[in-house]
Amino acid sequence: MYTDPDELDTDIASIHAEIRNLQKRKRILTSSLLATDPIQKLLQKAPASAVSDDLAALSPLAQAAGKHNELNHHRIAFGATAFPFKDPSPNSPKNLLGIRIDVCTRNGQFTKPYYILLRSEQRGTEKRLRVHRHTVPACISMAKLESAYLSRPVRDADPELAKPWKGRRQDLRGFARELRRELVGWQMRVDAVEFLREKLGLEGRYTLEGSPDRDTGVVSVAAASLEARYVRLEWEDGRVGRFKLSNGGIVERAVVIGDQGRDKKTEDMMTGGGGRVETVLDRLRVENRLRVERVSTSTSSV
Amino acid sequence: MARQKLVRAPTTASLPNNLRIPSSTPSLIKTLGKLSRQALLDLAFFWLDDRNVESFPPFLQQDEAEGPDNEALPYPAGETIEEIQQVYSDLQDRKGGKREVLDRILEGDWRNGITLRQLAMADLRYMDDHPASLRWTALELSRVGKQSPQQSPDWSGSVPRIQAATFVQALQREISPLVKAHYHLGRSATLPLTLLRIFVVDSPYQSPAQSAEIFTDSSRIIYVAFPDSCPFIYTSITASGSKTAPSTSSVATDTRTLQRLVRDAIPKALSRPQARFSLNATSLAAKNLPTLLTLRGPGRSTVSNGAFSIFADAALEGSPLDPRPSNTVAPEDHIGIDPAETDSGRDSTKRKSNSLEGGALSPLSKQRRMAVHSRFGTESSIAQAPLDRLDIRLLDRPGSDDEDTVPAVSLTFSGSNVISGLRKLAELGVVDPERMPSWMTGEESVSVATVRGGQRLQKDV
């Protein structure tokens, strides 16, 4: 039987991919199994002398799995973990303090971890931490955070210069807490916009072509920038709107402009009723119904 | 009515979008000729689209009736817009050179001239297709003056929120007394950028008297790119660049002065009362927009490169839900690259893996490979941000403490990807990966640096 060599190649490639996937799955299962409670307990219980040969051969792997499991629990539970890092560069400060921040997304997955590496600077007698490298996106200002929480403690030399907000000591905990809060807030805003888009059936579409949502008349919802602080809305009748989203998921302010100027009723509907962003579409639906009624009564009265 | 057209009064308005450049201008043909056939067709379709056709009216038979025209032109005027759209659809369907499309546009449907807006669109399209066609400089926007501490702190970056039209208006207000300009704003089709193209001319008149060649003079065109959500802007104005021949109109204002005027006006146009901005240099210029986006962009990699790219790419550890211990997982797996893709896709990795498979690794080379990896970080980070030039000034005194003789040693590396080349040298053992300073690994993410004792000085000396 004649077979096309290209076809054979693709077959081989797909089989290779399959093998890789299975190997990956096997390793995930092995690690999960080794990290389970019964096995970990067994390891801890068994005294070192009584460990059988099989267990001894197994134990480094099992111990690594246990340790990693514990680490993951910390990362999930606390969100911010610290670790030491050695800078390989011969001319820089060697030992860095790393902070890893994990943020959970809507679908239960975690984003790529964010890292902040701090170096300690010796200035005279005092030591201070400074941000050396980080992977925080530019929409969160590291410089502002650093100056607020990691600014140099002022020596009480000149009371004129010692501004009240500068007198603070270096506050690493506060720094990590604020930064994590900001990252989580950002992720929640991004998730909220995604959620609204999903509800309107707009996922993956960024063009205006497409049928508007029947109940609200909304044609598009999108974050105005990567920061997702402002969200832009468009209606089928040409009205455009924008609302500001707080870190807590509240619609703080809204502006809607149509052909006849500001549409205050819709604006109030968006910010009113608790202002939760998740229910903003329900409120718009109510508003849209009222609007249709208004239009029909005004035409019938004429 | 016809007489009014002859009146030329100096104004402060910008050059109109619909100012036509004669289609027979040789440099115009050359400029449009740089575009590919598909790009030309896409532009023609856009111009003829029902929503846009009013801004870019093609030459129709009814226009022919208005003025007596010579019949010698090779393309008969179309009767309706649909007919012309059909012509381009036919061109789209069949194969051929770009010349026929270009001729059709210039000698046929837009024989009356190409407007400034059309030319600007063509230029932006060319940039989309060739992201490495210009040299870009990254500048940082920073707030001038201290901000008072607020009750509820706002940690968002100092990115001025701008509305494109308002910004252009403000810019126009800044520069209109000095130069006349044409503005075109466009969104890049391939990169997260908004591009502003400014064409400047030193004439106060609405329709400049200079020859039409001036409209395609590349030294009069300034690009400003606004990447999304980050306090940087990129400009095509280079400090040393534009050494091209002085403009043909021998007025005292040369093109570099015009460029300077525009550059100075940008931060002012971005500022508002109580929120003033200034532009600062960031020691990075590269001939590639993706490089600037990686090294001075909104993403994770702006402040962690070189050895720290393992953090930017999250190649070190996996998600907290991954049960596998981190040291047993390949970095590619963490980043999420399909190994099959890297094998076939990237040429450099393929070559590297081949050379390594060739012979059994000696412990020495393995150690070196580890060292190279720890200094340069992930390979994808270097491939994403090629630097075409790296200028280093060394201020170290060799050995002796002789204060008077500071040798001025300047190093210039140039090539398609300087950092990747240095990495290759380190892999081959030419450079000692453990002792090399960090500016060689791309960690500093700059293209110009002054170095003392292996460390980059923040301020240029």
Automatic annotation (TrEMBL), chain A:
Main location (coarse class): nucleus
Localization terms from the record: Chromosome, Centromere; Nucleus
The keyword Nucleus belongs to this UniProt entry's keyword annotation: yes
Taxonomic superkingdom: Eukaryota
Keyword Nucleus appears in the UniProt entry: yes
Residue ranges that the Swiss-Prot or TrEMBL entry lists as coiled coil: none
Any single Gene Ontology cellular-component annotation: nucleus
Record keywords: Centromere, Chromosome, Nucleus
Annotated InterPro entries: CENP-O
Similarity section: Belongs to the CENP-O/MCM21 family.
Name under which the protein is recorded: Cenp-O kinetochore centromere component
TrEMBL record, chain B:
UniProt xrefs under Pfam families: CENP-N (PF05238)
InterPro entries xrefs: Chl4/mis15/CENP-N
Domain of life: Eukaryota
Region (Disordered): 319-378
A GO BP annotation: CENP-A containing chromatin assembly
Identification of the protein by name: CHL4 family chromosome segregation protein
